[in-house]
Amino acid sequence: MAQTLINANPTVYSPSKTSQRILTFEEQDDSFEDPIDAQEIFDLIRSISDPEHPLTLEQLNVTQCEHITVSDETSRVLVEFTPTIPHCSMATLIGLCIRVRLLRSLPDRFKVDIRVRNGTHQSENAVNKQLNDKERVAAALENDHLLEVVNQCLATAGLRGQDTPSP
Amino acid sequence: MTSMDKHVAKYMVATGDASAEAVSASDDISKIVNSGDTQANLLQLIQSLGEYLTNDDGFIRAKATGLLSHVLSETNQSSINAAAVDVLVHFYCDRLSDETCVPKLLEGIDALVTFDNFKEKSAVTVSKMLFENVKTQSFPQTARYRVFSIIGSLVARYSSALRSMNNEFVFGFSQAMDGEKDPRNLMKAFALVKEIVVNFDISNHVEDLFEVTFCYFPITFKPPPDDPYGITAEDLKITLRHSLSSSPLFAKFAMPLLLEKLSSSSGSAKKDSMETIAECAPVYGANALLPDINELFDALKVEVFHATDPVLEDTALEAIHQVVAALSTTISSDSANDPAENALKPLVVECMVNLKDPELKNAKPAGRILRAAASASDPAFNSIIDAIMPILLRHHRETDLATQKKAVLDVLLEFLEASKTLYGERTDAKNDADFQTPLLGYKDRLWELFESATTASNEYNGLRLAGIKGLHVMTLMKNYLADNEVGLAVRTFTKILVDQNDNELQVKALSSLLSIAKTQQQQILDYTVPVLMDTMPASEADDKASAHQKNLEYLTELSSMPAIFDVVGIQLVSKFETATRQQPEQYIYAYEIIHAFDTILQQKTEKQDIGKWVDLVFEKLFGQCISASLASQTTSSILDDRILSVIASITAVIFQHLEASVQSEYINRLFDIYTKSDLSSLKLESDHTFKPLDASSPDAQKKTSTLFAVAVSSYSRTVQLPIASHEEFLDELVSAALSSSSCELQVIALAQLHGAIVNKWADDAVRNTYVEGLVSKLVPIAESNHAALTILLWTCKALVLMAKPIGYTITDQLITWCASPVLGGRTAHGFELIVGDDNLVLNRASGATLNLLYKQRFFNYCLPKLVENFKSSQADIKPNYLIALSYLLRNVRKQVLLNELPPLIPLLLDSLELDDASLKISTLDTFRIAVIDAPEIISQHVRRLVPALLQVAQHSKQMAVRISALTCLAQFPVSLTRDVLQPHSTYAIKQLSLCLDDNKRLVRRQAVDCRSKWYGI
Fold first, then answer.
1. Can you tell me which family this protein belongs to (chain B) (predicted)?
2. B360/A9 touch (CB, cutoff 8 Å), yes or no
3. Interface of B with A (CB under 8 A)
């Protein structure tokens, strides 16, 4: 079992608690408007499970809040992620999970770009191309087996960095 | 022909042995046998049966035998003498070769072996004949069950006699069990294996017995869907495990097989194997474990390092723990070549390798493995500590990275925990000076590491948290820290509470203090309490960063210890007094202090703990309130409505917990104060007269009626109120309320007190007359006098609690009023008051008379009327009925609600279109509960519900409503079946995408969660 893993013993980062959003007065008041920001996108994807380990993308430092750029006015999102090792063959799958999560969780008006962070993967360009090609993503999701894997990784996404689901 | 013959004939001609005639005949026979001389009667029965028992037709023989067996099982056995039993035993055993009869014969033998006069010799005969003639597995389940039951009785009572045929018995049993498949029989058989191992020498048939037992491992049983026998796979696993762990002789066969199953791909088989190893290890002992030990550790280790499931990981750790404990029981003269230590070595080495880089994923499991192993025995602990400690300490020294330091501390923490498990906690009474943790030698070093971690000037919380945890565990360990060192830890924790701004650290520090408080209260009282009190400002104006809120929270938590509350309570009340006087216009700070005091009291359960505060509350709080109400200008914030309501809540809980005599004394004092203006018991003097019930008094005085009302309402029925008569006093209350137009608080207070007295009034008839008079007086003036409705509502509640008819008469009036343009709104909301629980008066705690099912009765009474009125009323009135209805729905038990739900669904759907937010939320909540608990009802309405809910989720003005609608929608995919939802899922998912663009973040969040649930259909 151990041999089949691409990275069997990755470094584990403990999520910093400071990155939890604190509920503000404005958020609870009907008369204010809350724009979609990087933290909100990060909350959506931080607890996606890694396909290899029972750890989240945040714990493996694959996603970081600082690597997300959002513009609510122009409806654009850029998510950059860092594979745990440069030859990680799971990078596309991880990117696909992020893509699907955002497809399902963001309003249609957003244009979402998902990229591997510069210089963190051997075949950066190929991965980026695959992830941002609408048709290839759609085709991938036609594959029932692949969809099942993606859904499994997304099962924990609702935790948003918490240990247990909030009520 | 005797009567016995007749009955026997009747039985024999009846169809089968389970038909009504057969059963009644056999019961009659049992009765005859048991009346008079049982033995003689039995003889007569056998004579009557004679020709049938020897009949050529096997079925007739079997039927006759069945009758005899049945009678034997019901008979009054003690009156049958030894000789007769002996004859019967021989009769039964001799016929065991008659296959058709065997099931019936077994039934008889099963009865016979429990007889008092069944002798040891017979036990041997029965066993011999049974094993010789009966091929157990060729018979149906019930017969096989009889065999196990017979063996069970024999082993339980005659094992010493049966030892004369030891080998034959053991072998016979293993033959009987071989191939058994029924779970009921297996439960019995597994238990028997253990009995036999205990009572017999199995050494000659170890392998036979082992094979027929182990072949069931691992259990893969799935109970049939309706599960008629209530036997679960877990039951079977546990019984089987007990039988495998019953003898060390099984070890040499079991270990290789268990190891093999460990590598199984099925999670449940693995778990079962590990649990079995954990249970068997102490029995099998070191010598049995040593040959395969490396392989065993390897397998278990993999489970921890590559755990997919925390349950499996814990199971593996427990197995390691048990195995190491078992290894350590060997006594070895030569410590260098101790086999146990050698066995442990490769495991420790591997963990050491993994700990070299404490930040990597495998470090944590390595720490856990070491903890499991170290906590197993003293030698293991010593050898592991000797090997690992130096490495960890060096690591810590050599690194400057906070994350790495934290990783090291985490592993050290595992050792502290292991030591706590093995060498005991502070609270353990047993004192064994020799049995000391080797960590004692590292005490100063560890203290320094953890203590410096708590103060690490770094953004990184993990390190500080590890520091707190470390110090905490050290305070718990037995014979570890000296008292003054615990005191130092207390100071460190307190400092974190006061200085740090991080919630996580504070929570941890507080929980550490709480656990220290259990054994070392004085330390907390000496240091923590004064610091927390002193850092609270005297008034809100001096308050920086509202530190007081946190401090109050901490004090509340710590006050769960009575001795701490004794000190904290007094100080809180005096802080409160100061705060109210220093800033009369500001209420918040004082409110928070007194609220904390209230919270602590509400959490107490001991009568003593609560009642003793009555003096302080009476003197300080009541005194303050009344003197403030007499002052000509505002000198204190104590009369603020919110503060007053907290004091009322304190009053309620204290008065409810007073002894009757004390309660009576205080109630008398309050009557003096409130009705006679006699303030002497409070030692107050004033130029103004205190006349709160007088219409002309200022509002400040009127307000304080709340305290009077709440205190008196709690009166116990044994207390005599100082009033001339009920009617007179109630009339006084009513007229005071009706004339107190300006002070709503007083009206409510008086109405509550009025209600409480009506409720506790013992004389039913007089009460009825009084209430009738009251209703006819109040109804006509209800539209002109605000107070009239309030009084009626509380009176109605008082009577509805007891399910009195007159209460329902008032209810009818209220339902009519729902349609009134003047009273409609207030009346509809009044239903909440009637059916909801009040936390001050007219509840169980305050001693009100209440009928257990009053809510349900009220619900059943009102529901049809409300629905009918709803249907027949104008559009602008309809909402009132829906509001009243929603209060009923909120307060009735779920089961009742679900029963009444189907006809209400159209109404509820209508209420989603109204503007009232709280009504909508309540309706949405009802739907949510219904989706969870009555999916079959909701399934029929999905077509209308889903679009309606989506509509609310998209277009409601209030975010709370939108969130409720989404929460409700999110429950659909969880509770309803796929085929119901499938047709709507595309639509729902599409519509939900609009909610993803909601302008409120909290709504978006709920929408995302909801949508991803719908995607999962």
1. Belongs to the MET18/MMS19 family.
2. yes
3. 302, 305-308, 359-362, 364, 403, 406, 459-462, 502, 504, 957-959, 993-994, 996-997, 999-1002, 1004-1005, 1008-1009, 1011-1012, 1015-1016
Which of A10, A16, A30 is nearest residue B361 as measured by Cβ atoms? A10
Q: With beta carbons under 8 A apart, name residues in chain B contacting A1.
A: 302, 306
User: Are A40 and B1000 a contacting pair at CB < 8 A?
Assistant: no
| Facing residue for A11 by CB, picked from B361, B996, B1008 | B361
What are the chain A neighbours of B1011 within 8 Å (beta carbons)? 104-105
Q: Domain tally for chain A?
A: 1
What is the percent of chain A where pLDDT is above 70?
91
pLDDT at A17 over 60: no
Q: Which residues of A touch B302 (CB under 8 A)?
A: 1-2
| Minimal-distance CA residue of chain B relative to A150 | B1016
β pairing state of A111-116 and A68-71? unpaired
| Interchain contact, B1004 vs A108, CB within 8 Å | no
Confirm whether A20 is domain-assigned: no
* Cα(A16)–Cα(B223) distance, integer angstroms: 46
- pLDDT given at position B542: 55
The total number of residues written for chain A in this structure: 167
Q: Do A9 and B959 touch (CB under 8 A)?
A: no
Of the candidates B233, B325, B318, the one whose C-alpha atom is nearest the C-alpha of residue B276 is B318
Residue A48 placed within a domain: yes
Q: Helix axis angle, B894-911 relative to B942-955, nearest 10°? A: 60
Higher pLDDT, B963 or A160: B963
Give the CA distances from residue A93 to residues A149, B699, B803, in Å, rounded to whole numbers and listed in that order: 9, 71, 65
Give a yes or no: residue A28 inside a domain. Answer: no
Q: Which CATH number do you get for residue A105?
A: 3.30.300.130
| Domain coverage including residue A137 | 36-159
> Mind telling me how many Å the CA of A161 is from chain B's nearest CA?
14
What is the block-wise mean pLDDT of chain B (1017 residues), using blocks of 10 residues?
80 81 85 83 85 84 88 84 88 86 89 87 88 87 91 89 88 89 90 90 88 87 78 89 90 88 82 91 85 86 83 90 83 59 83 80 86 86 86 85 84 89 77 73 86 75 86 86 86 84 83 86 86 76 64 87 87 87 79 90 79 86 88 80 91 89 91 87 80 85 90 89 89 89 86 93 90 92 89 94 91 91 89 89 87 90 90 84 88 84 87 84 89 89 92 91 94 92 93 93 94 90
Tell me the HSE value of B916 on the side-chain side, using a 13 A CA sphere: 19
Cβ–Cβ of A33/B362 closer than 8 Å? no
CA distance B212 to chain A (A): 33
- Per the structure block, which two tokens stand in for B12? 């024999």
Radius of gyration of chain A (CA): 16
In a domain, A3, yes or no: no
* Alpha helix positions (H), chain A: 38-45, 91-105, 124-131, 134-142, 144-154
